[in-house]
What does this fold into?
Amino acid sequence: MRSLPAPIRDLELRDRLGELLGEALHDQGRAAPLYLIRSFGRLAEARGPVGVSPEDLIRAAEDALREAGRPASAKEVIHELLGSGLLEQTGDGAGSLRVAPGKHLLAELSAVVVRTDAYCRALEALYRRPLHPAGEMERALEAAACLFNEGLFFEVHEVLEALWLKLEGQSRLLLQGLIQIAVGFHHLENRNINGALSLLREGREKVNAYGPDRFGLRLDRFLEQADACRRSIESLGREAFDRFDRQMIPRMHFQNRGEA
It folds into this structure.
């Protein structure tokens, strides 16, 4: 079964992580906070409630950034995340400082580790793209494809809606259709079966109505597979959340430019 990252239930935490992702999508140099959060979560899960030493956390985050081809210092990032409240500093009872999760992060630490891992994979896929288009529409669609392929459906909605709100004309139809398809799968993960069915249907109709010029996205097969998902969810009814085969969820690809 295709593994999809669980939704973040705390809206404040979800929005803060989304802001960090948005910064990294627009500036490759801003990826370090996400790698540090992921590294912290992995270390914290392994070591329990004693917290993580700043030195170990910096080393783990910088190693991860180096492996991803984005070498950067993590020292300042710790201070940034401490200031935001995502992390907090504590003592271990022996005079040594430790880094611990803030209250919002603590409640959903396992989900955040999985989700930030998906963020990092999406960013790495985006950074590996051989060409980087100048147009705002093309850049947004590239980012959306990389996010969609990691099961980050809510984040696809955030990226495309920001552009949809600014656009005029027919291009809005394509964006709205893709947004609806992504949110349809997001609804499925939130057990809103009726919402999932409605948006998957409406989204496919809008993208189909846009025509063949889709900014390099290969969407014909994508739409067929999305519609097959809708039919499967419809046939499963209330059991769809548990029984629907996530392997059926399509991936978004670009014409003659490699996979997103």
